Amino acid sequence: MYTEKVMDHFRNPRNMGEIPDADGIGTVGNPVCGDMMTIYIKVKDNRIDDIKFKTFGCGAAVATSSMVTEIAKGKTLEEAIKITRASVADSLGGLPPIKMHCSNLAADALHAAIEDYHKRQKEVKK
Amino acid sequence: MIKKSREWVTMPTQKRVYMDYSAGKPVDARVVEEMLPFMQSFYGNPSSLHTFGQEALKALEDARAKVARLIGAEKRESIIFTSGATESNNLAIKGVCLRYRDHGTRIVTSSVEHMSVVNPCKFLTTRGFEVIFIPVDDCGIVSLETLEGELTDKTTLVTIVYANGEIGTVEPIKEISKIVHSKNAYLHVDATVANGQIPIDVKNDGIDLLSLSSNDMYGPKGVGALYIKEGIRVEPILHGGGQERGVRSGTENLPGIVGFGKAAEIASKEMQVESARLLRLRDRMIKGLLEPILCSFLNGHSTKRLPNNVSVRYNFIEGESMLLSLDMMGVAASSGSACTAKTLEPSHVLLAIGLKHEEAHGSLMFSLGKDNTEEEVDYVIGLMPEIVKRLRAMSPLTPKELHG
Description:
The structure holds 2 protein chains of 2 kinds.
Chain A lengths: L3 H8 L12 E7 L4 E10 L2 E10 L2 H14 L4 H5 L3 H7 L5 H6 L3 H20 L1
Antiparallel strand pairs in A: 1-2, 2-3
Chain B lengths: L1 H5 L10 E2 L10 H7 L1 H4 L10 H20 L8 E4 L2 H15 L6 E5 L4 H11 L4 E5 L9 H7 L4 E7 L11 H10 L3 E5 L11 H4 L3 E5 L10 E5 L25 H37 L5 E3 L10 E6 L4 H10 L2 E2 L15 H5 L4 H5 L1 E5 L6 H21 L10
Parallel strand pairs in B: 1-11, 3-4, 3-5, 5-6, 6-7
Antiparallel strand pairs in B: 2-8, 7-8, 9-10, 10-12
């Protein structure tokens, strides 16, 4: 059902945890649907210096979260915002069709964290 | 590709523990032995007049008698062989409703039925029938009061599961039967999971139609039966050469039926001892899975429960992740989470007992069987705290107090 890459990220998730003093936090999904994830980012010189995730959900939800942190780490915010659901799934060697819709939320969580970062920056400037 | 993705499952040193007997069972060696001659030596058609055919017919009727004996049926002719429990449920529900539609077009069922009962009922709503789903309590037991209130003189059929496979709850069939018959409706019971685990007697229980499956009793897959009480007629759903008293056309699957008969015979003799053994394992496992872990719960009833069913839930984590984690350790189980199904909704049975969606997603079901040992139960009990801890550490829903 899952590719070896998905299982690898499920078994050994990269960047799992929280960043207590994160610069941006994005949460998407809903426990009612069975998938929910939060991405924490730390930004330095417009780059994602550190990134961590927490996920409630199936194997695909965990693996996409882990993968998106791996792809985004070190990228500029402009590069990171271009990461899509499709590119996360491709990097994992594909996902079962039914999981593309429900569990492939990690890119959305990353985008939400970047938006949160921008929002906080604006508030600081005010 | 498939081989590669499976490699991690079958690592040579990997311990393998199968606890998903509700999904599929091995065929008993004695059953296989009984079936083999009917592949190559006795291959005649039971409908044929010649000796080859008559040998086959005798085997067919012997198997029928064994299945009848297991459920206390008055005579072997009450047993109709089918391709499995799904067909039996379809035949019972559509067959009775279509045959007796002049009596009324109301069907009453429960909210904890298998999809092979739910969907034929829903199909009949497209043919002018009305279906009422009776609620269950938080243990999964059908509300007798609501049942009684919903029965009208237009009710043709009531169909209730003997015991639900997901949560293991055994329904009060005898009491249900009294209510149903006081309103002159027929009672169909889906005994697919219950059969071979707990004693069922169609006469004593007051059952008019009963669905059975062979594999659930360690017989071959692809065979089932429907008991139809004498005097009740059903409209066939398969039309053809008129086999099985015209109720179910199609040349009989003789090797499968012979195996089913043998499995029924074995179940008649061994069920009592085996069920007592499973019940001890079940209770040991439930205790061991819940006691060491906070925010863990049993699904279903603690005693009115199938001897092989262990259904638990852990808050803040999701079922498929637990299944994958167990599979990594060689353990096969199942879950009511949407993620393990072909739909995105969690199990309707878990929602019917009042679980919230997120609770249903966190459910885990082990169905025990003949090869499980106390050592295997203890192995799984030993794995669970670490699996739950790891997934809870990952989950944004876990309260801070539960960490560390």
